[in-house]
Amino acid sequence: MARKKKDETVELKVPEHVAIIMDGNGRWAKKRFLPRSAGHSAGSRTVEQICDDAWSLGIKYLTVYAFSTENWKRSDSEVATLMDLLRKYMKNCLERSRKNNMKVCVIGDVTRLDEDLRHSIEELTRESAGNTGLCFTVALNYGGRDELVRAFKKMMADAQSGRISESEVSEETISQYLDTAGMPDPDLVIRTSGEIRLSNFLPWQSAYSELYFTDVLWPDFDKKELIKAIEYYNKKDRRFGGRNEE
């Protein structure tokens, strides 16, 4: 992918898979003397635009951290607001997936979500399964450690039933028991709002991801900021534990 910058053509190697920790909705709202719900609504609109921007730049997989297993600790009113927003977003996402040929997946333990929301998720993933555009993954009630616990439980059950033996266990085997089975690991993980941590997001999958942290609050994150992250990614020499021969 090439783009113009100060009368120069800059060739950028676009990561195949970008994962984003969307942080800063509350602070965005506070700066504007608005309720936190306004920040979450603004953040939801940013997600929709970033999906379009990511695909236009050549990104094939986009994964966003929408609601973590730890987010249940927030106030009841904020959790209720987030759930209502998710309901609305799932309906809008169904229309967008049809329009943009976007495949949508949801990772995380959805069993704790209300029945109507689970139904919307099932409908969205089923209806978009055959789409060939951007593979958009939403992490809902997701926590990396919880994902690993659930994966190991499934693996143990298969071991006890004889479907898998100890000699067959490898990194690749474990990956197939994770929520992200069949997806490439993220090449680039972005976190907005200035916090410098992964917060239990894709710990197994991001072992060799490049990490990009920005002070920009999520509702203000746009295509220009996404390109900045990709430019940062391009400066990295990804050796995956090896070294360059000089």
Task: Supply database-style keywords.
single chain, alpha/beta, Undecaprenyl pyrophosphate synthetase, 7 helices
In short:
By secondary structure, this protein is of the alpha/beta class. Helices cover 42% and strands 17% of the residues. The strands form two sheets. Strands 5-6-4-3-7-8 form a six-stranded parallel β-sheet, with helices on both faces. A two-stranded antiparallel sheet has the order 1-2.
Task: Summarize the helices and strands and which ones pair or pack.
Elements: E1 2-5, E2 8-11, E3 17-21, H1 25-31, H2 36-57, E4 61-68, H3 76-100, E5 103-107, H4 115-128, E6 135-142, H5 144-160, H6 171-176, E7 188-191, E8 210-213, H7 223-234
Parallel strand pairs: 3-4, 3-7, 4-6, 5-6, 7-8
Antiparallel strand pairs: 1-2
Helix pairs in contact: 1-2, 2-3, 3-4
Count all strands and give the number.
8
Briefly note the CATH topology name: Undecaprenyl pyrophosphate synthetase
Give average pLDDT, whole number: 92
How many helices does DSSP assign?
Answer: 7
The CATH architecture name reads 3-Layer(aba) Sandwich
Sheet with most strands: strand arrangement: 5-6-4-3-7-8
Rounded to an integer in angstroms, the radius of gyration calculated over CA atoms is: 19 Å
